[in-house]
Amino acid sequence: xxxxxxxxxxxxxxxxxxxxxxxxxNDFLKASSKESFRDIVTEVDKYxxxxxxxxxxxxxxxxxFLTEESGFIEGINEKDYQWIVxxxxxxxxxxxxxxxxxxxxxxxxxxxxxxxxxxxxxLGDLYYGAEGIGVYKNHAKIKIRDGKEEETLFAxxxxxKNYDPLKRSKEFLMFGKxxxxxxxxxxxxxAAMNLAYLAEGKFGGCWGKAxxxxxxxxxxxxxxxxxxxxxxxxxxxxxxxISYIAVVPSALKFLKGxxxx
Amino acid sequence: MNKKVLVYGAGAIGRGxxxxxxxxxxxxxxxxxINNNLRNLLNKNKxxxxxxxxxxxxxxxxxxxxxxxxxxxxxxxxxxxxxxITAVGPRNVLSIAENLxxxxxxxxxxxxxxxxxxxxxxxxxxxxxxxxxPDVITSNSAPxxxxxxxxLAIVTEDGVCYIDxxxxxxxxxxxxxxxxxxxxxxxxKLYLHNTPHCIAAYLGNILSVKYLHxxxxxxxSEEIVRGAMNEMKCVLLRKFHLEKGFVGWYANKELKxxxxxxxxxxxxxxxxxxxxxxxxxxxxxxxxxxxxxxGIVPKNIILGIMAAFCYNNPSDADANIKYLIEALEPxxxxxxxxxxxxxxxxxxxxxxEWKYNINKLRRLK
Lengths: 261, 365
What we know:
By secondary structure, chain A is α+β, with helices and mostly antiparallel strands. Chain A is about 40% helix and about 30% strand.
């Protein structure tokens, strides 16, 4: 499969979806209750996702999809490739107009990401890359900024809504340990953007436990292409959950010492 | 005793032009070059020939090379030489800046970016960093008959080198000038050379030709380049108040240069890194913005900008421009890749005539 072509298609779909998110970013002002608020978010998310599916299918109807809203969509006679799509990663940030959310699209080849696009439509920041091509933000090539843990900022994306008190306190404990030994640790609300910022050299590392695969598939590739060390494992295949750490080489030992996948 | 010079970058300016400015009979040449093949060949042959195209024929000078270092190996030599010249390209200057801290001798920057000397001076704490303008076109290659004489052969035209007069003790065939004169020459070079020169190259890329003079042989392409030159002439007169005679003379000189059939100036060299040339204050977008600020509609420069958007060279550092122009709607391309805001007049001008201009460029062939 021609990766340049697939990358071009994925960019096209991500930006089209991002434009939809931008157009609807004020719709929440109309919400009269918590329920209607949630309905609007789901509606926008779905609308953007449909646009992505439409564009990707138009170019190649054979490739199956795994998406946040629609789940698995079968392709035709195509077993090696799969699109993984999240039309909106960072919903809380989006509805609160905090510019840290993104559209995330990855093309998987035999289970590993080979093309990835992350688009933050509010800032117009487009991160994209593919194996054999490299990794870019907008017009420029990007790479990680390697450095020891004390010289860099870390980030994590976990929901905070894990209501098992023991599990929840463990996550916050881990967060605190990393926060205390580094320049700081942020809980940002978007795993995709965390990985994009790592690829760009703004973060030194990030991790996630039991994240949905569509949140991180593109980011894992981009971080790796930019020079980060990325380790991940599938936690629950049925539920599409993976845990991962992604970090600059000089801080790998530190992060592995603090975070257990 | 001969003066010693360490030149960063054995490319077009470093190898092709400088030996005509600082004669090898009076200056000993040391180079720093990261291209392994080129460096090894320079060290193996210990010399190369630079050809100068003058009066429709070639003159030549053989340049003995004392040594060509890899970047990082030159730290002792940089302290010993009489002066240093950088000719590595604005994108690469930062990668050599650390090494320049090792020396207190004058550093002459031939970098096509007026801000570079100040940057290097602040990084190195060296007050003797000056700007130089090689007013010349130098190819980084040579036609095959010259390559047969020397695989390292390179061709330059008969140019002028302007350098800040505060280092005039260095000597050479240099026109040492005041800061004011240097600024005037820089403005002319930036807008009457750089802008139309790269436009010619992007048009040449669309025409699928190899050398700049071939692009100028196409009538429509020549008209666009001439038109862009006229737009920039107006800017220099209206905004910077340069003398009309100087501007006219400079523009004619440049058009003649672009057509020089002896130079073999590769399109790929002149057009390289289109995103750098499309930066907000650079020779394409910056030039168009200047025109608009002076009340000039830069129709031809806009065609040049569109040609740069279409640049197709898979081996270029900015080869991703092709993915983006293919993937994105024009308005998204301008926002994401070029960082133009929808409230800007240039954004409107580019969008309004987008299809018309693309079709016009297609008709070049």
